């Protein structure tokens, strides 16, 4: 077994452990698997795509493609041409699976942010980033399938008539720009609430660790493109593709494992107020206990990536808090 195979399947195993913990935590919160929300199912789809990605990547690492080093004289036999065509098709599959996994993770995070920030001005920023992510993905795919390499079958032609069909330089630049910029936006989104909070040191350390994993995802994205440009005939880019997708999956799921961790570790939340009774819960989603609740200074409590002490509908709780604050100001 190669070093790539060992590392990639270790990553996949660790990722599944985190995802399973997330799914168990979500079941604790919503009460039934049937009540899973959209991002839960998208995460399962992302894991299925990641499994195929890892399997194909391990094949690609041992297979030649239509990316031929111009400094080497190559006299290809019909059998070698067929193998290179297969390798080229697998690279296309790997690239699309990588994009799919990466953007599914972004969607899952943004759906979670959207649930936690409904009825807040902050929610507008979440939706703006969501539009950027969706439009960016659509534009990237249109360029990949309809612009950069024409006709499309040149992606696996040996030899190819268009260097973009073998090197995919324009696509890699587009992907890096849209992927890294949206990752940075998604990481920055929760920071204002986090910085304004009076969370305990332990909670802040835990969140910082999750942020660190997210930053490593961006570093992996930069490095896989760096090696794709500087050493396209080497294999270094392959392992960084897997590191990027794996750390992205881990970072997106870690916050949602808190309910299970709290139950297993017998962590008490008795310091949180439980006097709130929602006036009307119909039509509101229940808070999904992402990570420990972070309460901001002042009279009102802004939701962040964290659980409440009971399954209080978050949107109703926030609306009531905001209405109460507005009433106090009016009386003054």
Automatic annotation (TrEMBL):
Q: Which InterPro entries match?
A: Rhodopsin_dom_fungi, SAT4-like
**Any keyword Transmembrane helix?**
yes
Spans through the membrane: 6-25, 41-60, 90-113, 125-147, 176-195, 207-227, 239-261
UniProt keyword annotations, A-Z: Membrane, Transmembrane, Transmembrane helix
Keyword Transmembrane on entry: yes
Topological relation to the membrane, as annotated: Multi-pass membrane protein
Domain Rhodopsin residue range list: 22-262
Any one GO CC term of the record: membrane
Principal place of residence: membrane
Q: Where in the cell is it found?
A: Membrane
Q: Which family does it belong to?
A: Belongs to the SAT4 family.
Q: What protein is this chain from? A: Rhodopsin domain-containing protein
Species annotation: Fusarium falciforme
């Amino acid at each position: 077994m190669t070093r790539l195979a060992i590392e990639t399947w270790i990553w996949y195993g660790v990722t599944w452990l985190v995802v399973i913990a997330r799914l168990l935590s979500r079941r604790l919160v919503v009460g039934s698997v049937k009540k899973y929300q959209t991002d839960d199912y998208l995460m399962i789809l992302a894991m299925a795509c990641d499994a195929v990605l890892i399997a194909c990547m391990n094949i690609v690492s041992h297979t030649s493609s239509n990316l031929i080093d111009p400094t080497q004289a190559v006299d290809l036999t019909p059998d070698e041409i067929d193998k290179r065509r297969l390798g080229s098709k697998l690279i296309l599959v790997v690239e699309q699976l990588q994009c799919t996994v990466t953007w599914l993770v972004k969607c899952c995070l943004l759906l979670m942010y959207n649930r936690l920030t409904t009825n807040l001005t902050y929610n507008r920023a979440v939706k703006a980033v969501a539009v950027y992510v969706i439009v960016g993905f659509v534009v990237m795919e249109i360029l990949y399938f309809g612009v950069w390499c024409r006709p499309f079958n040149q992606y696996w032609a040996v030899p190819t008539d268009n260097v973009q069909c073998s090197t995919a330089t324009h696509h890699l630049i587009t992907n890096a720009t849209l992927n890294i910029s949206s990752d940075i936006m998604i990481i920055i989104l929760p920071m204002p609430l986090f910085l304004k909070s009076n969370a305990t040191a332990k909670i802040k350390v835990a969140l910082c660790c999750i942020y660190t994993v997210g930053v490593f995802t961006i570093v992996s994205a930069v490095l896989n493109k760096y090696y794709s440009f500087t050493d396209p005939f080497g294999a270094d880019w392959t392992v960084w593709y897997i590191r990027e997708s794996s750390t992205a999956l881990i970072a997106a799921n870690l916050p949602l494992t808190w309910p299970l961790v709290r139950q297993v570790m017998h962590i008490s939340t008795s310091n949180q107020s439980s006097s709130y009774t929602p006036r009307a819960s119909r039509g509101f989603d229940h808070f999904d206990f992402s990570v420990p609740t972070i309460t901001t200074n002042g009279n009102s409590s802004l939701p962040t990536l964290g659980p409440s002490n009971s399954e209080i509908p978050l949107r109703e709780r926030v609306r009531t808090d905001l209405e109460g604050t507005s009433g106090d100001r009016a009386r003054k």
